[in-house]
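Standup notes, structure subgroup. Blocker cleared on the MRU input:
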Amino acid sequence: MMPGNLSGGASPEMKVPIPASAKRRSRDERGRLDYRKTSLTPRSLFCWRERPVLSDDTGEGNVPTLDNRITSVVWQGDSVSILDQRKLPSEEIWIETSDYRLVIESIQNMSVRGAPAIGIVGSYGLVLAAMELAQTANGDFTDRLHATARKIREARPTGANLGWAVNRMLSGAASAQTTEEVVADLLSEATRIHREDIESNRQIGRNGARLLPWGSTPLTHCNTGALATGGHGTALGIVRTAWADGRIERVYATETRPLLQGARLTAWELERERIPASLIADSASGIVMRRGLVHAVIVGADRIAANGDVANKIGTYNLAVLAKENGIPFYVAAPTGTLDISLSVGEEIVIEERDEDEVLGYGDTRSAPQGMSAFNPAFDVTPNRYVTAIVTELGVARPPYRRSLATLMEQNHESPLSLDGRGLEPAPYHDTGVRVKNLD
Ligand code: MRU
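Run returned:
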C-alpha cells in the first residue's frame, strides 16, 4: 500500500505540510506565563496572557491579522490559538491547541462563540483532526475524518456557519488522493474561509452603513464584532464602518443576559475602538426606543431560513417586536454562510438550550435561591415580518425574502465573493471591487 494513501493510512515518516509562512517560535519566546495541565495531552493546551504572534504575511495558509486590531482566532501552523472569550474583559487569555477535541470543547463551552467565528475555528479543528489521523489512522482515514467532521458540526446546533464551513471543507478536499493532500486541501480551505469571512464583514459594513441616517444612534444586541467573526464583525461591523464614516453619534449596546456578551464583549470592542456607547440592561430596550433615542436596531444572525426568519441570540425577538411597535427599522447582518435555504421556515431551526446554571447566577456567583430551576434557550427566532432588511456581503435583501434570498444565493455562485473563494484578493481589507447590488 502506498504511504499516505487514503485507503492504506499514513506512513510513520509522513510529514504533514506546514506552510512556510507559518514560522513556529519556541514556547518560551512566546512569553508563556501559565501552563495548565489537563486530561488532554500536555502539548495540546497551554494558555498565556499575551496575544499570539500575529502575521502580516498573506502567503498561502496564513491569514493576515496585523492590521486587524481585534482577533479571536489565529492559525499557528500546526495548532490554533483561541482567545478565551469567557474571560474577557478582565483577562486576555489565549488557548493554543493542536487537539481537535479541545476545539470542540472550546466551541461548546463558548471560549469561542459567534456563528462565523465558530465556523472558522471548526474548520481549523478539522485540519487538526486530519493531521492527527494522518499519523494514526490505519486504513480508515476517510471514515474517521468524516466521523470527526460530524462531531465538530454538532458541537453547537443553532449557528449555520459551523456546518456550512465543515461541509465546505470536506468538499474542498474531496478530490485529494493521499492523506497529505487531504491535510493540505483542508488547510487551504480553512484559511480561505477565514479570509473570506473578514472580507465579507468589511463588505457587510459598507452595505449596512449606508442604511443608517447621518447622526443616528443604532442599538445592537449580543456581540457580533471582531470577536464573533474572522474580524470586523457583522452587525457591529456596520457600527464600526458607520462610525468611521461619521454617520453615527453613539451606539446602544444591550447587556445580553445570561452570558453578558454585550456588557463584556461588545463593550470591550467599542471601548477599544473609542466608539461612544451606552450599555443598557436588556429590559431597558423598551424605554430607549419609546423615547426616540434609537434610530435603527442592528443584530447578527446564527441561522436564517429561506423565508427570512432569523435565529439569533435570545432577546432578539423581543427587540424586533419593540422596534416594529416604535416604527424603528430592524436590520439583520450576516454573511451568506449563515443562510440556510434548506430550511423553509424558522420553526425548523434547532434552538440550543444551555445549562440552567447560566441563568441561575453568573460565573461562580449564584443569584437564585437553591432549589430554583431555569429555562435557558440560547437563541430565539424572529419572524420575517419584523425584519426590515437582511444585509449580506452580496447586497441587501428585502421582503419578500423567499425571493430576495434565493436571488442572493444564485448570485453567490457567480460573484467574485462566491463560496468557493475564486477571485478573492489575497489580502483582506482590500476592496474586492464588488459593488453593492441592491435587491429591493
Ligand atoms: O451564543 P453566542 O454568543 O455564540 O451567540 C452569538 C449570536 O447570537 C450572534 O448574534 C451571532 O452568532 C452572530 S455573530 C456575528
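Discussed briefly. The pocket of MRU is lined by residues 113-116, 159, 222, 224, 228-229, 234, 261, 300-302, 312-313, 378 (CB under 6 Å).
Next: hand off to the docking folks.
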